[in-house]
Amino acid sequence: MEQHSQPLSLRGTLPPRPRSHRLRPHQQGLSLGLAATPSGLKATGKEAKIIAAKLLENPFRWQDYERVKGLGPLGELSLGEQIAAFETPWLAQGNLSCTTRETAYAPYLRRLLKAAAAHPDYA
Q1: Cα–Cα distance for residue pair 80/117, rounded to 1 Å
Q2: Is the CA virtual torsion 53, 56, 58, 64 positive or negative?
Q3: Chain segment 39-60, per-residue pLDDT in tens
């Protein structure tokens, strides 16, 4: 457990994050967004035990801990919300031409949204 600013973080050997160039587990920090208060310390300790159990059983998923600004943990968002969270900053980048965006990427995003609507249990 460590504190660099107000929120508490955990540090340990964790699997590589998605989109990481690393292939093996290594030392990483994981912010839980909990305040450095007695209750925050207690909750962080509990979460450390949960993460340790997940690491032993191999169901640890970074999606459960990655947060989308203003929306919460990625693993708790529906597929439609995840796509919207991706699209907003992606469209704001402006480094893709309109043609590329509409012909190369938009059809796949539309298919994902259609699949999310057809299978709400997966969304």
Answers
A1: 8
A2: positive
A3: 988 998 998 999 999 999 888 8
